[in-house]
Predict the structure.
Amino acid sequence: MKKNSAIILLLAILILSAPMIVYSEENVVTKVVNTVVDFLSSPFKKKIKKVDLSELKKYSDTQKDVFLKVNEKLIELKEVENPENRNLMLERSILETVKGNKEKAKEYVTKAGKIKAASDGLSLKEQIKENKAVEEVVDEEFVFDEDLVMLLTDEFTDSYEVTTIKALMVKTSGKKLTDKELEEEMKKVADKFYKNIRSGKEAKELIEKTIAQKEYELALLFLERANNDKFLDDIYYTKSKETLLKLIEEKKKMEEELARKKLEEEERLRKEQEFLAKLYEEEQRKKILANKFTVLLGSKLSDSAQAVAIGIDGIYITGYSYGDYGGIKNNGDSDIIVSKIDFSGNVLWSKMYGSSGSDSGTGIAVGEDGVYLTGTTRGDIDGKKSIGDADIFIAKFDFNGNKKWTNLFGTVEKDKAKSLAIGKDGIYVTGTTKGVIDANINAGMWDIFVAKYDFNGNKKWTKMYGSSSHDESNSIAITENEIYVSGYSLGSLDLTKNKGNSDCFLLKLNANGNKVWVKMFGTKSSDYVNSISAGYDGVYLTGETAGKLGDKNYGASDIFVTKYSHEGALLWSRQIGSSDNDIGYFIFARLDEVYVTGRTRGVIGSNKAFGKADIFLGKYDANGNLKFAKTFGTPEDDECYGLCVGLDFYYIIGDTRGKLNNKKNNGGLDAFVMMMSDE
């Protein structure tokens, strides 16, 4: 009750002081901030130094920026859960006042005045105390200001918020400390935390809470102090020290690995940006930005674009055709198609080839010396004899559409290729097999396979993974030294019990194809991963779920977007959909942008339904915030299977039975390529 009264009093003071917050001189603003400080400190029954805003002048802009950015980020995180929280509006007003944005501060006060007062609010301190939130917004390297350290330590000692204190320690000079200086500063912090310890129970509590925050060096300092003070028995001391030394060493190795990985990611991003710069120059030269296009490709029968890749000189697609595609006669059933479209929407060339059986291209990637594709064939192709009922092919074309080579591999059973990616030293293909490839062991029914080829088409190795049930791999992504594979399983992988009918999996392999870890996730209903993309800060997946992987389930099946760290930690999961069936087919992450394509049979958000099945296009940021969700199409069936991104534009592919953007349909199902932008 006292806490509620204090909050209501605070709100009243802030609202009544609104004109002063916005228009007053610095001394009045200081009084308002000190009111907040008094309120924040009251639950801790401690005297905290008052904040004089004039004191901010002695700190650097960097230091003030850290305080403001941390608090702003924490408020944003809470606004997601409770966007109409009046206290958060008032806290934003104070932050804007500190920054000198008086008009913005006034806007937040006005908004707060229109919202009914909350019976319980979230203080900045309560938000800062959430370590998870703090870790999301603070860098790993810290420098120290002794006065600030002491103030913050006083404020947070009761809850041992070591991570929070480290997060907010910034030295005015911005000079980074040496390891020795850092050790001395940590000892000062340890002294401050330890000074009120009077028993072994209190010492152990402090040590264990510090370990829980992964501050192992600080915990070791506490352990030694407590042992010197005779608070600990020998067994506890010996075992704890042994454990802490091991944890410190492991943490050091992990930090070294993270530093190495960070350098690799920065180099990869640099190369990616160079590629985008070249691409942008090319597209600027052709003046295509003002001429967005839609191209329909096909025969009188069914044709579909299943995968897309972008090069410096154009867009490449692969898929299948049941008719005479691009003026080329069909060999029988469905044949593999490959087309190149320039950035103005002109089809530069199209190729089609295959067997007398059913053939389809399912994956494509552009390398430095050509275009690589993979897929499945049910017959002899390019002089290569079929091995079983359905085989995997991998082929290379040059940039002018000349085929350089084709290779087949598989078993006497059925084999399917689903995705292809290019690494620094080879080509990687993933899919599913019912047989045994290259002396691997089939765990049961359909198993996952990953194969590596060199750039001349020579197979280097093949690995198989699976459960005793049905396992399917649908997508592969490559980083500098890692391979990620995703799909679904009806069984249990790596002793992880299946939660329902089918569960999603994310498999990480090292450069040699050996398993590093596998993660399974899902609901009691059916869940499928259809696509994966490896970003610089994590791995993104999309697919469909009939359950609840995100905040809520919207209908029969929904599109989901999930992000894992490179270490296998689930970072977030989002779900979007209509009351009908929706599928996420493809995901593409570049820098801080994440694009998702798919199909909906209903109405998503404020969009409208165009036909039986519509194209879905969504964009998220790296934190899982939805930037937009669009649906569009024809009165017929439209599906979107892939996407590639330039700088200010992107290209989507799929198939349509209608006149997409009023383009003439050639008959039946047509493949399409569409250029779009966020606008």
